[in-house]
Amino acid sequence: xxxxxxxxxxxxxxxxxxxxxxxxxxxxxxxxxxETRLGVRLLHRTTRRLSLTPEGEVFLRRCRDLLADLxxxxxxxxxxxxxxxxxxxxxxPVTYGIRRLAPLWGAFRQRYPDVxxxxxLVDRVVDLVEEGFDLAVRIGRLGDSSLVARRLAMTRLVxxxxxxxxxxxxxxxxxxxxxxxxxxxxxxxxxxxxxxxxGPDGKVTVQTRPNIHSNNGETCLAAALSGQGIILQPxxxxxxxxxxxxxxxxxxxxxxxxxxxxxxYPSRRHLAPKLRxxxxxxxxxxxPTPTG
Length: 292
Known about the structure:
This protein is α/β, with parallel strands linked by helices and 292 residues long. Among the domains are: 1-81, Arc Repressor Mutant, subunit A (Orthogonal Bundle); 155-257, 3-Layer(aba) Sandwich (D-Maltodextrin-Binding Protein, domain 2), CATH 3.40.190.290. 41% of the residues lie in helices and 26% in strands. The protein is built from 10 helices and 13 strands. It has helices spanning 2-10, 13-20, 24-38, 54-81, 94-111, 128-131, 163-169, 217-225, 235-244, 273-285, and strands at residues 43-45, 50-52, 86-92, 115-121, 135-139, 148-161, 183-186, 194-199, 202-207, 210-214, 230-234, 248-249, 258-265. The protein is elongated and about 70 Å long.
C-alpha cells in the first residue's frame, strides 16, 4: 500500500523508487503483486504517464486512511520513546524554500542524522493528508482549517521598483499614484490586484492594472529588475536587491502589511518526535520579527 501510494504521489515508478529508497524493479513488483492479489488493475500505464483506474481511485482512498492510522499508531509508540528518526515529507513555497529554508536542511540533518527528508517545492496549496505530507510551510493569512498551525516567522510586504523604471516613468509620491503606473501582479494575492497600504493619512486602497501577472515571486522580481513596473512582494524576495540598490522601496512611511510564515501539520495528537523536532528547529532558526 505504501508503495502504491508513493507511485501515485510521484507520478512514476522511478520517482517512487527514489522517494522510497528502493529499486524500480522492487516498486514494480510490489504494485504488480498488489494488482494480482486484488484481481483488478489499479493503474493505467503508458510510456508517458500513469493514471488511476476507477478501482485504483477507490483503493487509494482506503490506503490513505489505513496508512494514516498506521502512522498514528507508530507515532503514539515512538512518542513514548522520544526517538527522532524516520522519513519526513515536507512541502514548502518555491522562493521561500530556496532563499530561507534551503540553507537550514543540512543543519537539521546534522542535529538529527537518523531523519530522512523529502522536500517538495511548490507554491500551490497541497492537501497534506491526501498527498501524504507530514508538514507544509505556508505564507499568508490562514483561513479556517482542521489543520494545526504554528507561526514560525513574519515577513513584511514591500512596494518597490527598479531605478531604470522610476527614471523613465517618475517616482510616485503617494500610493494613490500606483494606479497610473505599470504594475507586475502576483496571482496568488488574496485581494487580487487591489493593493492596500496604511500610512499617516490612514488606509489607502488602489486598484492596479498589471501588465504582467505571475504566480511566482521570482518571476515578478525578474520583471521588476528589467524595468517593467512596480511590484508588491514579501521582504524575503526583494530585500537583497533593495540593499544593493537594484530596487528602490517606495512609500517607506506606509505599511503594505505583514504575512505570517506557518508550519502546518495534520494533528497535535501523537505528534511524532521527528515532526516535533522539525517544528522546534524551524521555530528556533527563523527570525520571528517582520523583516524577511
